[in-house]
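It is worth pausing here to work through a concrete case rather than discussing structure prediction in the abstract. The textbook approach is simple: state the sequence, then state the predicted structure, then interpret. We follow exactly that order.
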Amino acid sequence: MEFGRELIENENKLKALLSKLNDIPGIVFAVIIRKDGVLPAITPFNLGEDFLANFSSACAGIFGAHIAQHEIMNEPDPEQILAETETSKIFIYDVEESSLLVIKTLPKVNLGLLRLTVKNSLPQIRKLLIERREKIEETEMLLKEKFGIGKDLQSALKHLGGTLGSNRRKEA
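Step two, the predicted structure:
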């Protein structure tokens, strides 16, 4: 299935960009999450599904609260949110309509290098995420038209025998 291969290639490109961010000294991890906080998230390494689910939900909630506050105050939406504690910093970037880039750092990270790398990476990340979202939406519509399957791609793939997962195992 060509769709599976395209999505895997897209995800690998996103993981490579995240790995570049993770190479910056002081970065604990960088991850792309959905704005609704629901999995799946994209990360170049395994953070654990429970942690990732809780972390994604919390970051999406923080971002959503800031958006609501800015709407009430009639201010433009934030492009970046920073949460800072004694032990870490969490940067939340609005990447595109359904995704956020979240970066967790140690307290003493090189902010100049981080901001420059993010600034250079965001256009590529945004482009790949838009391509990914459009491909998923296109495929969901085709599945619905062809097989009468609802708009949930994951359940549709399970219904069709997990084709995407099968392709992923064959390529590994």
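Step three, interpretation. Residues 48 and 99 are 20 Å apart (CA to CA). The chain has one domain: 2-171.
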